[in-house]
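Report of the visiting student (M.T.), summer placement. My assignment was to run the structure pipeline on a short list of targets and document each run. The first record concerns DNA repair protein RAD51.
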Amino acid sequence: MASLQDLDLPPDLRQRLLARGVRTARDCLHHSVTDLAELLDLPHSAASALLLSVSAQSAPGYVTAAQLYSLALIDNSSQLRTFLPDLDAALRVGVPPGAITELVGPAGVGKSQMAMGLALSAALPRELQGLGVTAMYIDTEGKLSVARMQEMALARAARAFAEQPGPPAPPGAAAAPAALAALEELAMSALDRVLIVRAATLDALHESLAALERQVPQTGARLVVLDSVAALLRGGELGGGREQMLERSEHVGRQAAALKVLAERHRIPVVVTNQVTARPTGPAAHAFQGGGAAAGGGEGEGDGHNAAALGTKWAHGVNVRLVLERQGARRFIKIAKSPISPNLAFEYAITAAGAQQVGCGPVTATDGAAQVGGSVLALPIVNQPAPEGPAWDGGGGGGWGGDGGGY
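After the run finished, the structure tokens were exported:
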């Protein structure tokens, strides 16, 4: 809250407040009118007027709906796209700024692939349908592969070259090497705009999140990616006792608060990946898939349903939750939580260029994906219930190719 030095107060009152240890608006507002009157030796009416003045100057300002709409139009001109056109349209032109967007799903489904692809979407120049801005990428699992990002960047350059207007090349003719090389050079320049932070411990992660408050404006970053938010909390750094569970809950709250403030203060999208855990079937277990191994395996396999890790405290901090899952060889991404979008599911594939939409429009039961259309989409939020000991164990696993294998 604001310092008293920043408020428009009579100089003598400000000095008396500071002399008595009242240094911020918060300190002042914690006192009642009677307390302030006694503390500053003021008439009751003067103490009341002082509190009203400090309160009015400290309260958040308001904006009109028209102003917010104008701001949204400006944001749309530089909004981060997933390169899944129908998903972008459902999310109102991509990943929203000023919000936390979560990618949650079992290992091997493509969470890290999508996270790397979004970082590239921010960093690629506009000639390659990117934003040409800096992205901050915090890697807690060691899954980030610069070689894979390079492959994605070059594949997008090749795709942009193939989509260039002009007469078709004669059969057997080689591609124009100079034009393609120029696009590849543009694509490779994007790697200079992806700033990578490795955080292998909880302390390192908290320090990295705190440093972002300074680094985001310094670097001009317009995207922050955290891959993953759950890995360090579910690893061996914290034990499984009751005190450790409470400590883990505090860490979850700190991470959520830091990311929320970062997104809102700098009006940027914050994208995080989250793991799943197996929970027993029951009213508190919201389904991802029909159940463990039959639905494609990965982290949290076993009886019951898969649910998003970190529980309700974390879920309430998330603005948009995108659930990724597999049905056999097919992959689907669902809008499970969004303040502006309907609950829809879309099919995608992981290609050399990253995530790519399969088919057109949302999937339905007639697409042969009845289970996908009717599982998580029937529920507004997919949460793991509060941690209860051993259920926290387990983790991500797998290599860089789609969180756990080749893409």
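DSSP finds 14 helices and eleven strands in the chain. The first helix runs from residue 11 to 19. I thank the supervising group for their guidance throughout the placement.
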